[in-house]
Design goal:
Blueprint lengths: L5 H5 L20 H7 L3 H24 L8
Length: about 70
């Protein structure tokens, strides 16, 4: 698949046992990545678009308030 090795493909696997251990910010829990991993490209595309629009809105808000983006 995508010329990845078996190891590379397995890096994003999400075992049921891991769900309670992973931080809520772990990228393997992102809905766009889950959709893509599960072959639901419509869900993945919609989630990616939602995330990008959220980022654009945040950037517009910062520009409106003359704020610079800062790391946390």
């Amino acid at each position: 698949m995508y010329n990845f090795t078996h190891f590379a493909v397995s890096l994003n696997e999400l075992d049921k046992d891991m769900k309670g251990i992973l931080a809520p910010t772990d990228c393997r829990l992102r809905p766009d990545i889950r959709g893509m991993e599960n072959g639901d490209m419509d869900l993945a595309g919609n989630e990616k678009e939602r995330l990008e629009e959220k980022q654009r809105a945040s950037r517009r808000e910062r520009a409106k308030n003359n704020e610079e983006w800062q790391t946390r």
